[in-house]
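**Entry details**
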Amino acid sequence: MRKLTGKTGYLLVIIVLFALVLGWTWEALAEDPVVVGSKEFTEQLILGQLTIQMLEANDIPTVDETNLGGTIILREAQEEGEVDLAWEYTGTALITHLGFEDPITDPEEAYQIVRDEDLERYNLVWLNYAPLNNTYTIMMRREDSEELGIETLSDLAAAINEGVEAPEPGQWIFATNHEYSVREDGYPGLTEHYDFFFEGTQIMDTGITYGALRDGDVALGMGFATDGRIDGFDLVTLEDDQNYHPVYNGAPVIRAETLERYPEIEEILQPLIERLDDETMQRLNALVDIEGYEPDEAAAEFLEEEGLI
């Protein structure tokens, strides 16, 4: 056989390399992976990993774009086709993405509106929503709640209005982030709706409110209902017995063309959706925020325990 040398040999090498690269490209395109995105906070990272692992276990290839950024960044990426699938909350979609001004406290009503509007305006499909409701909540230390018999926001209003002595630090001081302190469906509307006032408020970053309450720096604090630190710090959420706060049920949202390519995704994710209630999400968040798990580790442990993978 004649040995190839010079330009002929180099040309052959280039052709072979080009063919290999082209072959890999075709293979990658043939896989047509689903790009899964998420926001940057713990719960969203876990939801993203749960979704990725469920899809991969059912032979649907994925690309991990979790921890992409905040609400607006993720939404724009999905609208522009850079993200195929991500979890969103009904209340967030209603107010932030779709521009509705009035919050909704009924889960099914909120879901139906965002489902219909998002499909019509942006060709985004909402799969079924989960029981988890990551809404605003008002928290107390468990020992204070039990000692004073305060279980609901109506109980709290009555205690304050009747002059019941406050727990540590000795006054009815409320810790809240800035956003909740000023938004109409936050602190101002809460005190008007339940007809009471705190003796004072302290504005701080959301993540700090949990520790400030645990350490006795304030008597109550705002938080989010599925945060793992509620149980981890032995706090309780007061029941919003008059349904003041809007609902924030989580649901997978997928681009319509992606669902057309993989219609089985809806059936694959449904068992996961059904299992994610507030208590379960708190436990998963606590694994990461308190016990030091990585989001993918927490997701894998849960899916294996539930027999979903």
